[in-house]
Amino acid sequence: MPRDERDDASGGAPPPHDGPADFLARVHHSAHNGHGPAPALAPGAARLLGLDALTLNVRARDGHLELLWCDPDKGLGPDLDMLQYSLGDGPTLETARHSHLLHVPDVLATDPDRWPFFLPATARTPLRAVITLPLRLGAALIGVLTGYRTTPGPLTPAQLHDLHRLGRSLLLLLHSDQANADEASGLRLYRAEVHQATGFLANELGIPLEEALLRLRAHAAAQDQPLSDLAHALLARRLPPDTLNPAT
């Protein structure tokens, strides 16, 4: 894919002026000094590591993944992350469930049964390769770092080394007292509206949160509607909660 088309697909963020070593050193310094990730995670970080997009998810107390950071902030990364969250399968979710690294150099050659919902949906995107790193403290999964590419092929050993180094620093940031999704860390909750809508629906219909989320996903899929748009409609009272109640 030509450079300008890759820029459009991944959000167009140029890499930082410094190289991978300087960028990774900056993240490492933030991790060890409790400064929070925002000052270190400059736009364009994905390009430095040979990727078109990066996403960082943390495991919430209820077991779901919460998207905290993307590079670029819009486009391929957050779109594919929301797609997985909406459909309930995909590489990031597989890593969260089984806590293992995935390196898929050619998404188009992947067994269709592996991600039966995610793979057909990616046919409408420029995704061609993906890699995921589980961020673990002992046996406990803290989060998942996912990299996406719009061209097929494996990462080089040097790129893999840099990605693992970034993952180790991000793990320290997530585990520190400063690494919360608030103003101090500079991170934001990308799916806050979906969580609010899930809680609202569960309360209105008197059902568990997990069932409320499943109903949101099913309704969004049936209407071919982004999950975030459905959540917004529900919270804005444009969509009555009973619409998602099959008993009515």
Low-confidence stretches: 1-10, 177-186
Q: Average the pLDDT over all residues and give the rounded result.
A: 80
Helix count from the secondary structure assignment: 10
CATH homology superfamily of the largest domain = GAF domain
Order of SSEs, N→C? HHHEEHHEHEEHHHH
Q: β content, as a range? A: 5-15%
Task: Count the beta strands.
Answer: 5
Q: What's this, in brief?
A:
With 248 residues, the chain is of the alpha+beta class.
Task: Outline the structure in words.
The chain is α+β, with helices and mostly antiparallel strands and 248 residues long. The protein folds into 2 domains: 173 residues, Beta-Lactamase (2-Layer Sandwich); 53 residues, no CATH class. The chain has a 5-stranded antiparallel β-sheet with strand order 2-1-5-4-3, sandwiched between helices.
Topology:
Layout: H1 3-10, H2 20-33, H3 45-48, E1 53-59, E2 65-71, H4 76-87, H5 91-98, E3 102-104, H6 118-122, E4 129-137, E5 140-149, H7 157-175, H8 192-205, H9 209-223, H10 227-235
Antiparallel strand pairs: 1-2, 1-5, 3-4, 4-5
Helix pairs in contact: 2-7, 8-9, 8-10
